[in-house]
Amino acid sequence: MYKGSVLLHTNLNNMDLGLKNKVIIVTGGAKGIGRSICLTLAQEGAIPVIVGRNSVDNENLLGEIVAGGGQAFTVNAELTNPEDCQRAVQETLSKWGQIDGLVNNAGLNDGVSLETGSYDDFVESLHRNVIHYFLMAHNALAELKKTQGVIVNISSKTADVGQGGTSGYAASNGGRNALTREWAVELSKYGIRVNAVVVSECWTPQYEKWIKKVSEAEAAQAMQEITEKIPLGNRMTRSEEIADTVAFLLSSRSSHTTGQLLYVDGGYVHLDRAIKPIGTDGHKS
């Protein structure tokens, strides 16, 4: 089992998702949710293509996958650059000759707000968070047609509930959701399925970096306030849980699922976030 994976992945192995030797591009694949997706895909016998700007991170994950007996490939790319989006697809084809899936995952909650942001900030945020989703899908489309491939877009609850101070990121996620539905319609004639996984409060290096900006006491209080609002288990989502859902959507086990926004968030968005945690006496506190 790969370092950093969790035991719940054995359930997927027993199910056999039929992903063996499928070549799947994962943007932002070296860290956080992307890393978990790549590890899960490799464990399922797929070949994840790790696309990201940091060559050291990319190579470290590649080494981890290979050491675990899997296959993978890396492409160093800055996805805000349209030429790099095209090159990521071309290098994948040159190496493997096919593309069976695309996971659009890369992005950053960059805090470009309405009040303090500017035109340039806002446009840059769109490039950072949604324009490369379009470019990667556009460049990979010819190959996805050949394989009746699958697209999975990673999205965020900010498009549904807002957050405050992050207009660029929220708008981008609204765009991700809309593109998921639009592409599902446009590409259905080719047998290409398109779905999104919507993330709420998930523990990632970005989240850890944010929480470390405050004092230890304030961080503990902040985490308690956050997890109390997550109805199922009053805990944050694990990146492996996002990855498992992505792997299912990429597989033929979800063969009649398209145009869907799947919320893997412990009920954060759609259930009552005022639900109190279970106390030690078994009653709501």
Oligomer: single chain
Number of strands: 7
- Taken as a percent bin, the fraction of beta residues is 5-15%
Number of domains: 2
Query: Any low-confidence stretches, pLDDT <50, length ≥5?
Result: 1-13, 279-285
Our Rg estimate from Cα atoms comes to 19 Å
Question: What number is the mean pLDDT?
Answer: 89
CATH superfamily of the largest domain: NAD(P)-binding Rossmann-like Domain
Structural class call reads alpha/beta
User: How far is it from the N-terminal to the C-terminal residue, by CA?
Assistant: 39 Å
Could you give the order of the helices and strands?
Answer: HEHEHEHEHEHHEHHHE
- CATH fold-level topology of the largest domain: Rossmann fold
Figure out the total of helices.
10
Helix percentage:
40-55%
Shape: globular
Q: Describe the sheet with the most strands.
A: 7 strands, parallel
CATH architecture assignment name of the largest domain:
3-Layer(aba) Sandwich
